Amino acid sequence: MTQGHHVAWARSIADAQHRLDAGNADLMLLDLRLPDGSGLELLQKLRRGGDTRPAIILTARDQVSDRIAGLNAGADDYLVKPFDLSELTARLQAVARRSFGAPSLVCHGGRLEVDQVNRQVRLAGAEVVLTGREWTLLELLARRPGSVVPRDRMEAMLAGAAADRAGNTLDVCMSRLRRKLGPGAVETSRGFGYRLKA
C-alpha cells in the first residue's frame, strides 16, 4: 500500500492483461517498454475493447510526438521519467477525481461526509480516524453510494493491502468501520456484499 493506494505490479503485458481481466484495478500506470511488447499497444487494445479505466503512461520518451501518441491512444495523463513521487501522487489524485466523480460525498442523512481527495471522513462534523484497511473499504463503497459492492471485490482489495489473508478479515474490518460511522451508514446485502446508505 502506497499513499493509500493498493498496488499490483505486473512485469509483462500478459501479466497486466491477466490482472486487469480479474477486475480489481481501478487505475493503470503503464510503462511503454515491457519485455513482451508495448504498453501503448496494450492500452489501445483495452480501449478498443471498451475498457474506460483511467490510465497514466510512464516513459523515458519526452518527445512531444510521443506524448501526443500516448494521449491519442487513450491515456488520461503522461509522465516522463525521472519524476518525483509526489508529482505521481498528485497526478493519480487528479485523474481519479476526473474519472470517479465528486471528490466529496455527503450521505447517511447528511451526517456523513467522505472527502475522497484529502482522505478525510466526518460524522456530524467530527473527524473520524480510519485505519488504512477501513479507508480502503469506505472508498470502495463511496464510489457508488447506494450500490452493493461484492464481498469478493472487497476481500481482494484487503488481500492486496495486508500481509495476512484470514477469511474473517473483511468482517472484522467492516465491523470496526460500522462502529466508527454510526448505525445504519453501511448496509448488508446478505450473501453478496455491502453498500453505503445514500
Characteristics:
single chain, alpha+beta, 4-stranded antiparallel beta sheet, 7 helices, 40% helix, elongated
User: What gross morphology would you assign?
Assistant: elongated
Strand order in the largest sheet:
6-7-8-9
Radius of gyration: 18 Å
Number of strands: 12
Largest sheet: 4 strands, antiparallel
Structure classification: alpha+beta
- Supply the number of helical segments: 7
How much strand content do the residues show? 15-25%
Q: Roughly how much helix do the residues carry, as a percent range?
A: 40-55%
**Chain-averaged pLDDT:** 81
Low-confidence stretches: 162-166
> From N to C, what is the helix and strand string?
HEEEHEHEHEEEEHEHHEE
- First-residue to last-residue Cα separation: 28 Å
Can you walk me through this structure?
This protein is an alpha+beta fold and 198 residues long. It is built from seven helices and twelve strands. It has a four-stranded antiparallel beta sheet with strand order 6-7-8-9, with no helix packed on it. Helix 5 runs antiparallel to helix 6 and helix 5 crosses helix 7. It is elongated, with a radius of gyration of 18 Å. It starts with 12 loop residues before the first helix and ends with a strand. About 3% of the residues have low confidence.
